[in-house]
Amino acid sequence: MTLDPSGLAADLDLLEQIEKATLRMVVQAIYDFHAQAAEIFAGESDLVQDIGEDITREALDRLGTSVIPVRLFGKMDYKRARYIFHENYSLRQALFVDSKAEEIAGAKTATIQTAQTSMVIRQRRAGQDVAQQGSLPTIVQSSSHSLLTTTVFVKYNYRAVQGARNELVDITLIALPNGLLQDRYNPDAQLTFWLAGRNAPTLGEAFRVRISIPRLKSMATWRVQHIHVLPTPSYTWDD
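Above: the chain's sequence. Below: its structure in token form.
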């Protein structure tokens, strides 16, 4: 049976299971590629953001997945319309994965654009409650299919060393909740994992927001996973 994604609004536990399984897949792809990722960070002279994007795409392409012939649009590095198969159901999914790269001092946050989430961003800024709607849909509608939007972020935390080299220290993977889970994770500006982004409204800069990685992890431990690269490569799924 192929599930209608809209029905997941009435089964949020199943929606969370689907997002959890998706994160496992992305984590596996990145972990399998972590040694090459460290070599690329040390050897490439490109901008670190470009390096991160290339690593994420190659890691996911190597692992592979089913493909539905639907073109996805959005400001994400990796976009794939695919099937999820479970013993009790199948589901069409719009998988969006984006890469971030930042020096290790910024490892506790990840900056995103409103175009990279289907949630309403509810937080306080300058003493005022803010509600900014993300522009990704919770469900992507094509001419022939409905696909559940699932969003994962891969954050490469590196350290700059002598000789203009970068050492990849660790990798943080974040499963951002679908907007259907709004009331569980961000019902108001007080219960939130969002932090103010690095944008200046007075200069007309576009609204940006940061994910507080510790806050999101405190809400659901599994939604944040860490792959350690230095000093010794290691990874254990954190439930």
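The chain is about 25% helix and 35% strand.
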